[in-house]
Amino acid sequence: MKHEPIAVPPGDTRDHLIVIGNGMAGCRAVEELLARDPARYRVTIIGAEPLVNYNRIMLSPVLAGEKTFDEIVLNGFDWYADNGITLLSGDPVVAIDRAARTVTSRSGLVLDYDRLLIATGSDPFIIPVPGKDLPGVIGFRDMKDVDHMLAAAERGGSAVVIGGGLLGLEAAHGLSLRGMTVTVLHIMPTLMERQLDEAAGWLLKTALEARGQTILTGADTAEIVGDGRVEAVRLKDGTTIPADLVVMAVGIRPSVALAREAGLDIGRGIRVDDHMVTSDPAILAVGECVEHDGQVYGLVAPLWDMCRALADGLAGRPSGYRPAPTSTKLKVAGLDVFSAGDFSGGDGAEDIVLRDASRGIYKRVVVKEDRIVGAVLYGDTADGNWYFDLLKKGESVGDIRDVLIFGQAFAQGGGQADPRAAVAALSDEAEICGCNGVSKGRVLACIDGGAHSLDAVRSGCKASASCGSCTGIVESLLALRLGGEVEAGPKTLCKCTTFGHDDVRREIVAQAMRSIPEVMQKLHWATPDGCSSCRPALNYYLLCALPGDYIDDQQSRFVNERMHANIQKDGTYSVVPRMWGGLTSPKELRAIADVVEKYNAPMVKVTGGQRLDIFGIRKEDLPAVWADLNAAGMVSGHAYGKSLRTVKTCVGSEWCRFGTQDSTGLGVKIERSTWGSWMPHKFKIAVSGCPRNCAEATIKDFGVVCVDSGYELHVGGNGGIRVRATDLLCKVATEGEALEMCAAFIQLYREEARYLERTAPWIERVGLAYVQSRLLPDAAARAALAGRFFYSQRFSQDDPWAARAAGDAQDIHAPMARFTPVEEMA
Amino acid sequence: MTGDWLDIGWVEEIPLRGSRTVQVDGGDDIAVFRTGDNRVFALLDRCPHKHGRLSQGIVHGGAVACPLHNWRISLATGEALGEDRGCTPTVPVKVSGGRVLLCRAGTLKAAA
Ligand code: SRM
Ligand SMILES: Cc1cc2nc3c(=O)[nH]c(=O)nc-3n(C[C@H](O)[C@H](O)[C@H](O)COP(=O)(O)OP(=O)(O)OC[C@H]3O[C@@H](n4cnc5c(N)ncnc54)[C@H](O)[C@@H]3O)c2cc1C
Ligand code: SF4
Ligand code: FES
């Protein structure tokens, strides 16, 4: 056996601290120690993994392809060198001799220690079923496991993930993004049951299924089947699921074998006192391998507290570890899940719940004796930190109980003029970065110390340097501290409010608000009657939420929608009557010709949307023009509205030698069913009779391309400055299905896009996969969307021109008074 | 319509947060605005930018957003607000016994 291979600098008489485990807690403990007393110990770190210290939490983003290994390194080789730390990696410790105060590594090194720190973390729990040792069955714990999964994904095929907790779902997400067919087996009835309640677990399951994963709950694994390597997983009920890879993510067990061999006091983990000292005073332990006061841990936040207590002790200023509640976030892009504290209910616990089914939001805050004891948030986790802060401080929420569930911005009412009030109001102890355990006070200190950009804060105090979910808050803190010097802050609807578009919509729906003043009152608008940005948006959000019931405000509509015509630069208007599907008739053409002559319209032209546009009509003449057009059976073409504009068609099978379907007929049907509807932005449709696509359907918001076997439905196209071709939504066989899908798509866009966001940027923001997940797998959900669209159409499909022609709102067309100076002089 | 003030109608004929116009033969229209808190202002109906009809804009607070390119014009001073520079002539106006009265001289001068 080799003994002491490490060259100790001559004259270095410092105590030797050996750390077993080069993971998150071990290295953090050393960092904390260096921060307090850099010269006190000579430090050696021995790690089983052949790597430098990296952020284990971020293995999930590495698997998902969002990060590379280099990006998740916490301390590179230079850190060890700069701090005089000896690193022995890839060589696990196999024995501790407490009497001799030595450790022995697998390669045979024997090292003397004065103090020993055990930070060996956890091992994945492998359920003891037949076949568990087959090649292709792995855990999800370290970089080696990720490499294994990436290699498997490279080969393609199916993966089975056993365990529907945080780890399992992150593994499933990554494998699914990497192209594998993924099945998640979970023994409990709902996913992540330790962090989420039933409702949130169900929402999560639905969302994951919509993304293409198969989730089996109540699934009890009996056996892993395979000849020489894994081939399938068999459940107790006999179901067999083919598998080229099996990931076991059912839980972790503290890694205590070494400590047990050494005769230390072990429970579920290595027992330690408040200063992280084990039953042997020369040996400390920290991280997931320890048991403190009967508790073992599986998240990093409490480990950081342990590391601080440990370093205080080693530096001779003992403080003591106090367990604190923990919170969890799921790191799956696009799925916002947060939980904290205890939400099991029980005696005297009261639930405050907010659900928004259509937007997939669920929030539940559990209150006991006026104090928050737990919170579960799904779909919108922005207020997670605030609830968690209140929970940890045990502050009374009696005063704000009624509005607690709407979140901080709402509950704290005042200070609305400052969009950063929410962050400003957090206490200094409030945890901002859960991954790295950084409090608001520390972020501010770091900014005050000269870190004036997000990157500087990230390298200065590590806040927002890991999973990034707190980036928005850190940006707000920067803005708060540095004023105008930093660009950032959550994007609000306009400067009249601290709420964003989505928040406002959510509140309008949640509180069934009916009018703009009501919204402004309830959401603490900072201006008395809004501005030209928020008023039209609010009017739209109200009409979309409560069609037939909301109170429309004409003064909040842009002039074109108020006048039902397009204003021109000289103050006259243009008039475009509807021509269904671009079809017209002698009678219509005659009526248009008559109008042009009768009102001296200087120009009439064929538009790019297959209609006729009459230009230069004076606002006084509009009602009369409309009356004449109405008499010939024509209605408003809505060429002026944030609404359905035109449905363009080509000739199609009735005449064209290439036509496969009746594109003209279908276009007319679609226009009949969609005209008059108000939208977040203008909306254009086209139907082409074959893939030659003469109607240019693939740059429309909704486009139909007919083919022999049915109809290809395309979405999200846009002309304009930045042309965007459509994405293929799906293919359907019948006209009926095409009409339903069109209505459902429009309604999804109406309900979820932000005002003035056309379908192209909207789809780029939320992703085609999301839109498909809302429209394709679930026929009932699709029918419900279409149903809501047709319901709202009952209120908007009446011709606005007819009412004006009949004498409605004459005031806005006529001057209030006339003044003839000459006459006056006389 | 005699004297120094032109009586143009009842204040209720102008919608809250809205506007009406007064035609001046041989000149530009005058836009008469009524704000959300019931104050009345009159301006030449011509945006200092590219002559948009301010009467067709969205009235909010004490300003109107022009319908053509969304400049915001102060109703009290006619000045463009924010980054934009320009000014529209204002016309003195008052409300008396519920009637809106426009200053004759001001109207002539503005519309000329
Ligand atoms: C009349 C028409 C031009 C024509 O004579 O052919 C026209 C005229 C205007 N277009 Fe257009 N567009 C017309 C077809 C189109 C098309 C072609 C089409 O619909 O198939 C496009 C490209 C397709 C698209 O929308 O993506 C088109 C892309 C735009 C855009 C860019 C949209 C975008 O999202 O980027 C604007 C600007 C906007 O809306 O903000 C625009 C804006 C306008 C406005 C409304 C500008 C305005 O705000 O005053 C013009 C109104 C003129 C008026 O007073 O009538 N127009 N415009 C066409 C009316 C079609 C109809 O019958 O309703
Ligand atoms: C994929 C994944 C995602 C996660 N996501 C989150 C999250 O979002 N939030 C959160 O709070 N937590 C998360 N965790 C948990 C978090 O990573 C752990 O709580 C944390 O890493 C525990 O730190 P530790 O130092 O105790 O153990 P580890 O980081 O595992 O470090 C222990 C190290 O000791 C080494 N070792 C073991 N035995 C020996 C030996 N005999 N000799 C030498 N070295 C040895 C191991 O190889 C390992 O490198 C996640 C974990 C995983 C695997
Ligand atoms: S799209 Fe096809 S069917 Fe329609 S007109 Fe062109 S060639 Fe004919
Ligand atoms: S004309 Fe008024 S903003 Fe351009």
Outline the structure in words.
- Chain A: Residues 327-394 form the NADH-rubredoxin oxidoreductase C-terminal domain.
- Chain A is an alpha/beta fold.
- Chain A folds into six domains: 15-122 and 254-314, FAD/NAD(P)-binding domain; 137-250, FAD/NAD(P)-binding domain (3-Layer(bba) Sandwich), CATH 3.50.50; 325-414, 2-Layer Sandwich (Enolase-like, domain 1), CATH 3.30.390.30; 418-489, BFD-like [2Fe-2S]-binding domain (Arc Repressor Mutant, subunit A, Orthogonal Bundle), CATH 1.10.10; 501-556, no CATH class; 642-798, Sulfite Reductase Hemoprotein, domain 1 (2-Layer Sandwich), CATH 3.30.413.
- Chain A is 32% helix and 21% strand.
- Chain A has 27 helices and 40 strands.
- A five-stranded parallel sheet of chain A has the order 6-3-2-10-22, covered by helices on one side.
- In chain A, a hairpin with a 5-residue loop joins strand 31 (566-567) and strand 32.
- In chain A, helix 12 packs across helix 13 (454-461) and helix 15 runs parallel beside helix 17.
- Chain A starts with a strand and ends with a helix.
- Chain B is mainly beta and 112 residues long.
- Chain B is 7% helix and 38% strand.
- The longest helix of chain B has 8 residues, at 104-111.
- Chain B is globular.
- Chain B starts with a strand and ends with a helix.
- In chain B, 52% of the residues are buried.
- Classes of the chains: A alpha/beta (826), B mainly beta (112).
- The A-B interface holds A 527-532, 535-536, 554-556, 558-560, 562-563, 567, 569, 571, 811, 815-822, 824 and B 1-2, 6, 8-9, 13-18, 20-27, 29, 32, 36-37, 50-53, 56-61, 65, 67-68, 70, 72, 104, 107-108.
- The structure holds siroheme (SRM), flavin-adenine dinucleotide, iron/sulfur cluster and FE2/S2 (inorganic) cluster.
- FE2/S2 (inorganic) cluster (FES) is lined by residues 47, 49-52, 66, 68-71 of chain B.
What's the arrangement of secondary structure elements?
The complex is a heterodimer of chains A (826) and B (112).
Chain A: E1 2-3, E2 15-20, H1 24-36, E3 41-47, E4 53-54, H2 59-64, E5 73-75, H3 77-82, E6 86-89, E7 93-97, E8 102-105, E9 109-112, E10 115-118, E11 122-124, E12 137-138, H4 143-155, E13 158-162, H5 166-177, E14 181-186, H6 198-210, E15 214-217, E16 221-225, E17 232-235, E18 240-242, E19 245-248, E20 252-254, H7 257-261, E21 270-272, E22 283-285, E23 290-292, H8 300-314, E24 327-329, E25 337-341, E26 349-356, E27 361-368, E28 371-378, H9 384-393, H10 408-411, H11 421-424, E29 431-433, E30 438-439, H12 440-448, H13 454-461, H14 471-482, H15 501-510, H16 516-522, H17 534-545, H18 559-563, E31 566-567, E32 573-575, H19 586-598, E33 603-606, E34 612-617, H20 622-631, E35 644-649, H21 663-674, E36 683-688, E37 702-707, E38 710-715, E39 727-732, H22 735-752, H23 759-766, H24 768-775, H25 779-796, H26 800-805, E40 817-819, H27 821-825
Parallel strand pairs in A: 1-9, 2-3, 2-10, 3-6, 10-22, 12-19, 13-14, 13-19, 14-15, 21-23, 35-36, 36-37
Antiparallel strand pairs in A: 4-5, 7-8, 8-9, 11-20, 16-17, 17-18, 24-25, 25-28, 26-27, 27-28, 29-30, 31-32, 32-34, 33-34, 37-38, 38-39
Chain B: E1 5-10, E2 18-24, E3 30-34, E4 40-44, E5 58-60, E6 63-65, E7 72-74, E8 90-91, E9 93-96, E10 99-103, H1 104-111
Antiparallel strand pairs in B: 1-10, 2-3, 3-4, 4-8, 5-6, 6-7, 9-10
